[in-house]
Amino acid sequence: MTQKTDTTVTGRITRTLADRIIAGEIAPGTKLRQDHFAEEFGASHVPVREAFRRLEAQGLVVSEPRRGVRVASFDIAEVREVAEMRASLEVLALRHAAPHLTSAILDTAEDINRAGENAKDVREWEDANKAFHRIILEPCNMPRLMASIDDLHAASARFLFSGFRMEWEAPTDQDHRAILRALREHQFDVAAATLARHVKWIGTKPGKNSRKLSAL
Amino acid sequence: MTQKTDTTVTGRITRTLADRIIAGEIAPGTKLRQDHFAEEFGASHVPVREAFRRLEAQGLVVSEPRRGVRVASFDIAEVREVAEMRASLEVLALRHAAPHLTSAILDTAEDINRAGENAKDVREWEDANKAFHRIILEPCNMPRLMASIDDLHAASARFLFSGFRMEWEAPTDQDHRAILRALREHQFDVAAATLARHVKWIGTKPGKNSRKLSAL
DNA sequence: ACAATAAAAATTATCTATAAAATTGGAAAT
DNA sequence: ATTTCCAATTTTATAGATAATTTTTATTGT
Question: What is the residue range of the signal peptide feature (chains A, B) (predicted)?
């Protein structure tokens, strides 16, 4: 949901909180008090509440009426669920995007992939990873689909940063290369199958924290 | 997103407006003024704004910062997009649900399907249709996936009520029967393929209004 | 000590008021 | 007649205040 929401206070709060939650700076299960963030952002609690609603829609927080919101907890099952959803939807996007992919786009994708290989930390790698997926899928011209995929990517990034999956080196970027190769040769089925396997693999490599992550 | 949100004013407004938009009572493109609904619901505009945010997340309205929200427009392309997304996600859900389906569940599904065949109007038929899909997919035990499917169903219903697809009789419910038969015989691949074809078909039967639907 | 309960504090939800921005209507200039 | 600009009006966005609900703390009875 990368829209220009930063002209408004609500948008600024939404983005900042989303970043923090995704980066793992606020632990799952943490209770989010509206007055607290109102003070932090020098705003009233109204825009904070609206930000909460948006975060809820992205699945980053869960809200219980009159009991406030807390950072969404997740477990290995949800990591797998998100991976499967991504696999399904990204394959769909790729099938529609493939006919519109130019070699210029694929060249750029290759550059992005190289940037990912040279990344210094997870954060940087994830940025490249997200950009790679986005650039080859975007030409599907299906905005609603892309919005869903973006939300799922945010969830995936959160899992990654939380230590669910530590490995972020070679294999992934090698998959990326295989996908590009297949696309250049117009082997769309191969590309789609590789993409599906690639995305699902992400959900199968639990790090050390396999238990339910939740504060308290 | 069928949660018990009606204990709060925001929840009541959200649900009412969602129903109206889905039913086509408010035309696509219509500008929604917060004061107007605040007065209608005897509330201030704050809960109305929060309701708008939720509707935005469901894709029922689009919001432009400082320019208000309007009922989301849609065209034949988006109808197809939603159909494809539903096909992908519902197949995923069915694959995970299949092992957990009991014959009791399938019996209930058959009852629901019969109710759909005897439906007096589109609305009634759509209720049965939604219930049918939900009962055979729910056992997948993937809440995030089900939430996404629910949102897509809401969009589909909107298209249906708007006259995009007029036919809602025999073939659909026959597909349903074929799916049940395959599930009873544990032919999960057949069931999945039938479901995919069934859902995609919905997006290929344009009624009379193929142009962009938008007020003004 | 423990459970149940009631008062106190904190927090969410909502309302009313204000500020900021966008839209509208009309007057002036070409 | 048409366009541009400015003021008036409407509408959105945010702030500040209040009501309602939940959570916490303290107290009483067993």
Answer: none
